[in-house]
Amino acid sequence: MNYKLTADNVQVWYSDFHALKNISIRIRPNTVTAFIGPSGCGKSTFLRLINRMNDYIDGFRMDGHILIDEKNIYAKRVRVEELRKEVGMVFQKPNPFPKSIFENVVYGLRIRGVNDKHILEEACENSLRQAALWDEVKDDLKKSALAISGGQQQRLCIARTLAVKPSIILMDEPASALDPISTAKIEELISQLKQNYTIIIVTHNMQQAARISDRTAFFYLGELIEFDTTVNIFTAPKEDKTQSYITGRFG
Question: How many domains does the chain contain in total?
Answer without folding.
Answer: 1
